[in-house]
Amino acid sequence: MSSASLNINEQAKVWLDKGLSDDQIKAELLGHGIDERNLNDIFKEVLKLRRARNTAKGLYFILAGAMLCLLSCIFTLTSSNTDVGLVLYGLTSLGIIIVFIGLIKIFG
Known about the structure:
Elements: H1 2-18, H2 22-31, H3 36-78, H4 85-107
């Protein structure tokens, strides 16, 4: 049984890499001969893997957006030009948008 569950875990990673939908994954599980009673438990594990990947991707977006906001702040403070509007408003707005994309990946 443990080798079968390990095989399903490896297969679930492949399915997620391919970008299969939930219905396609359920069809694949049924095609592997998984019993209907065990289907929901295995599918919950597949959903956990999907959420973990989305969380990791979202955290990368949040990190990139925060770094862009920090760089924008540093450039604005060290700039001697009177026209810092592009850096102040443009890069900061872009950084905030990237942070929100990361939040959407995590919570959406």
